[in-house]
Write a structure and sequence with these properties.
- This protein is of the alpha/beta class and 649 residues long.
- The protein contains 22 helices and 25 strands.
- The protein has an eight-stranded parallel β-barrel with strand order 1-2-5-11-12-13-14-17, surrounded by four helices.
- A hairpin with a 4-residue loop joins β8 and β9.
- It is globular.
- Bound molecules: alpha-D-glucopyranose (2 copies).
- One alpha-D-glucopyranose binds next to loops.
Length: 649
């Protein structure tokens, strides 16, 4: 091995010239110990990406200083948490974990107001709150906060960093983890780095992808996917001020960071550690699939994107090991899986399950769900899924075309059907969704809408259809029930828990009307929470339905928390002998077994009791109804949209 390529030698030399005198003795010891453990890996990753650059080692040395400063500013309470989490690293696989994602302004409206919402979170059983981006951002359209102007400043309309820290520790005291976004693929065009680039500073122009003319953008664009074709065609934006083309994967004011520049890696690491040190338990890696660009590819899920995320993970292990990464890769299922590793992202959204739950609800068929979950549900035991039904974004139909083909489903036509169905254009559809990002070149389209509206509540309330209302509530219970039981952290999207309908008011707002995702970014008001908590009584059918949803979810969450089988257990996807039904078996090392069977149709369905044999007991108990289910010969009957959580006796 050459001298320069030996990480041990490199670390010794870096440490010899790094001033640790600002650290307490204890911190200095911890820092050197953790470096000894994790630097070899960090070195490998860093030199893999940047080793060919003459100044790689200079930047690596600077990175170690950034890590040192990160540890120095970490509060004692968080250091204590680091040690606790290191002893219990799989906390996120616990049955106690239940998440909720919400916007501060739609729930607060300020950070300080959220203190009053803690009893609400607790009454539902929430143990992890993801606050959607709350950083300083451009006024007007800021992509819902995903265009960050300053990672170290809270958007003044929501509060201050001090308020955020105060909230983080108040939540922590109540056993609720704070999850924050790490929006690191891009900054807003108002970030100090972008402003310096706009002022002509070469150093900061190197933080982004800027091109003098269309030559190179044209070459890239041959193979790029358009993410928001409704706001701008292509992936580049011409900036008049500097007369350059800027790489903007998302909106034109979101400038992609240039990770081929090690200075960018270092600078963003420093921002990441700042967010970790606020007291977040997990960082949601926003749009992580896009961080590495490679000519001739779609510039998504590139190998070096993985290497960079692993390098960020090493940095966290050294400074803030209590913090885990959550992958937001809304891409092909095979690519989603590649981000999930203890050393990369310990948590990952499960977009495939999400999309296929909706698919089964529309088709009343479960074969695509079953086949796809058999192929893609299993992940490392050191990691966990974050299972969700709705979020602040659109629904993209990210299933695997090859799996669909095996079942004789034409993927293109089927996506078209799903879009038609959920936007209510398909005759007989129960859904009230809105099309999103229709691409005139390839006919691609995604769907927006709230849980309740997509499940049929909006239409049923409008037509005063009490059976329709009932069915809609059952559909919501069915989808969420699967996220509570299949294995992973269930993540509620705030406003779902009270069954809120689409909010169309964005169409009157100039800063929002071009982005239909606002239809499913809905305020949870004081009236909603008072109703949910039983402090007021329902005054109309909408409120009655809302209360049913809340109580139904709360009950299932409570059952989840009382049974260890919902935590660290394996999941085996089963073939139910009825194509309207979906079934899986959970098993843990204590010998507990749980069989979940779900009916996706509005008609009763039967299942042969042979499926119960997987439980290997004489009888079982449905945790949802507390009824005993015997192993006798007659087929098992499932009511419309019923699910059973059968625990072996
Ligand atoms: C993620 C966010 C989405 C945002 C995009 C760009 O996909 O969830 O809301 O538009 O990243 O930051
Ligand atoms: C995400 C996804 C895309 C999604 C968008 C946000 O990163 O890749 O499918 O729709 O950004 O809306």
């Amino acid at each position: 091995m050459s001298y320069a390529a030996d990480s041990g030698v490199c670390l010794d030399r870096i440490l010899a010239s790094t001033d640790l005198s600002g650290l307490s003795k204890k911190d200095a010891t911890t820092f050197t110990r953790r470096l000894k453990e994790h630097f070899p890996r960090l070195f490998d990753k860093y030199t893999y990406v940047y080793g060919h650059q003459y100044d790689c080692y200079f930047h690596l040395q600077k990175l170690v200083e950034i890590l040192r400063d990160g540890l120095k500013s970490r509060k004692p309470a968080l250091k204590k948490l680091d040690n606790e989490r290191l002893k219990n690293p799989l906390w996120y696989r616990d049955e106690q974990q239940v998440g909720m994602a919400c916007y501060v302004d739609l729930m607060g409206p300020t950070l300080n107001d959220l203190h009053d919402k803690i009893p609400y979170f607790k009454s539902l059983g929430v143990t992890y709150v993801h606050l959607m981006p709350l950083y300083d951002a451009p006024k007007g359209d800021s992509d819902g906060g995903y265009a960050v102007s300053d990672y170290r400043k809270v958007n003044p309309t929501l509060g201050t960093v001090k308020d955020l820290e105060k909230l983080a520790s108040a939540l922590q005291k109540e056993g609720i983890n704070l999850v924050l976004d790490f929006v690191f693929n891009h900054t807003s065009d108002e970030h100090a780095w972008a402003k310096a680039a706009l002022a002509g500073e070469k150093q900061f122009q190197g933080y982004y992808y800027l091109f003098d003319d269309r030559t190179i953008p044209d070459q890239y664009e041959h193979t790029l996917r358009e993410i928001f074709p409704q706001v701008r065609r292509g992936s580049f934006t011409f900036n008049e001020q500097i007369e350059k083309w800027v790489w903007t994967t998302f909106n034109s004011f979101q400038w992609d960071l240039n990770y081929s520049n090690p200075e960018v890696f270092n600078a963003i690491t420093s921002e990441m550690l700042f967010l970790a040190n606020i007291g977040s338990a997990a960082l949601r890696l926003d749009a992580l699939a896009f961080i590495w660009k490679e000519l001739g590819t779609n510039c998504e899920n590139q190998e070096k994107a993985h290497v960079l995320i692993q390098a960020f993970n090493c940095c966290l292990q050294i400074v803030a090991p209590a913090v885990v990464f959550k992958s937001e890769a809304i891409v092909h299922p095979d690519e989603v899986l590649k981000y999930i590793e203890k050393d990369e992202c310990q948590l990952s959204y499960n977009p495939l399950l999400m999309a296929l739950l909706w698919n089964s609800l529309a088709t009343r068929k479960t074969r695509l769900l079953t086949r796809s979950m058999k192929k893609s549900f299993s992940i490392s035991e050191n990691c966990t899924w974050v299972n969700y039904v709705r979020c602040h974004d659109d629904i993209g139909w990210t299933f695997d075309d090859a799996v669909a083909n095996e079942l004789g489903i034409n993927a293109f036509d089927h996506r078209h059907f799903l879009n038609q169905f959920y936007t209510g254009r398909f005759e007989g559809s129960f859904a009230n969704g809105v099309p999103f990002a229709e691409n005139p070149s390839n006919g691609d389209c995604r769907v927006c809408g709230s849980l309740a509206s997509l499940c049929g509540l909006e239409g049923a309330l409008k037509s005063n259809d009490s059976k329709g209302i009932d069915d809609a509530v059952k559909r919501m219970m069915l989808l969420y029930g699967i996220t509570f039981s299949i294995g992973g952290i269930p993540l509620l999207y705030s406003s779902d828990e009270v069954g809120k309908l689409n909010d169309y008011s964005y169409r009157l707002d100039d800063t929002k009307k071009h982005d239909d995702r606002w239809v499913n970014r809905i305020a949870v008001t004081r009236a909603d929470t008072e109703l949910a908590l039983g402090n007021t009584s329902p005054a109309n059918p909408t409120e009655t339905a809302s209360l049913h949803v809340f109580n139904g979810l709360r009950k299932m969450i409570a059952i989840r928390k009382q049974n260890a089988i919902f935590g660290q257990s394996s999941t085996q996807i089963l073939d139910a002998d009825n194509h309207h039904c979906f079934a899986f078996l959970r098993e843990n090392t204590q010998g507990h077994k749980l069989l979940v069977i779900c009916n996706f149709s509005e008609h009763p369905q039967t299942i042969q009791r042979s499926l119960l044999a997987t439980l290997k007991g004489a009888s079982s108990r449905d945790l949802l109804t507390d009824e005993t289910v015997e192993m006798n010969a007659s087929p098992l009957l499932l009511e419309p949209f019923q699910q059973m959580w059968l625990l072996a006796d």
